[in-house]
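---------- Forwarded message ----------

FYI, see the IS200/IS605 family transposase record below. Original note from H. follows.
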Amino acid sequence: MSPRWEPDPGVRRGRHVVHRLHAHLVFVTRHRGTVFNDEMLTRCEEIMRKVCDDFEADLTEFNGGEDHVHLLVHYPPKVALSNLVNSLKGVSSRRLRQESTGRVDPAVLHGRFWSGSYFAGSCGEAPLQVVKDYIENQKRPD
């Protein structure tokens, strides 16, 4: 008897799509101002996890330093990554600024919490060359 096939929990299924989309995001504070301590990073993760939930996305990993955060997000194809990023940055900026009044020097942030730019990288389990080779070796119809 052959072993039973177990579905991969990382693969999501929708009505007309099967997908596994991950993005590595990095947000930097305005002018790389030193803002985060452990307590603020924990709160930032909570806020960003809620935003991801609202987008039916999963915040798989989160970490950061004094002036930046890294996120690994598993998101559905119906979500435009730029919209998710705008919400993550906008909601976290508002909430963190409201909740940390007096703890963060406003001069460090110059009126904004996050830098206007960000890093977004697509992630997958197979290295890029493996995917390229796979596509290159597909048989074309005769």
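H. also flagged this: The chain has four helices and six strands.
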